[in-house]
Write a structure and sequence with these properties.
6 helices; about 70% helix
C-alpha cells in the first residue's frame, strides 16, 4: 500500500499537479470519476455492463481510488486505519443479528 501511495504521488509530482489538488477539488474529482463509473452502467443491466465493459469499469474504479488515496495522503489520513474504524462503526450501526440478509437502513430497524 505504501509503495502504491508513493507511485501515485510521484506521478502527480512529476507533473507539478499538487498545486491543483486542494481537498475540495480532490473531493469533486473523486465524485466525477464515480459518475464516470456509474455512466458505464447507464441503460444496461449490471450483468451486461460487467460482461461487456470490464476494462472501462476497472479504469474508472482506479480513477476513483487514485483520487481517494491522493486525498487521504494529503490530509494525512491512514487509509487502512480509516477503513478499519469505519467498519467498526458500521458494525455497531448494522449489528449482524439485525442486518443479516436485510437491505434496510439502520434507522429502519425495529426496536427489538
Ligand atoms: Mg475517468
Amino acid at each position: 500500500m505504501e509503495r502504491l501511495i508513493q507511485d501515485i504521488i510521484a506521478f502527480r509530482d512529476e507533473r507539478n499537479w499538487k498545486q491543483y489538488h486542494n481537498p475540495k477539488d480532490l473531493a469533486l474529482s473523486l465524485s466525477l470519476e464515480a459518475s464516470e463509473l456509474l455512466e458505464i452502467f447507464q441503460w444496461k443491466t449490471s450483468e451486461e455492463a460487467v460482461r461487456t465493459k470490464r476494462t472501462e469499469i476497472e479504469e474508472e474504479l482506479a480513477d476513483v481510488l487514485i483520487y481517494a488515496i491522493t486525498m487521504a495522503h494529503d490530509l494525512e489520513i491512514d487509509v487502512a486505519s480509516a477503513i478499519r474504524n469505519k467498519i467498526s462503526k458500521n458494525a455497531i450501526k448494522y449489528p449482524a443479528h439485525k442486518a443479516k440478509g436485510s437491505a434496510k437502513k439502520y434507522n429502519e430497524y425495529s426496536s427489538d
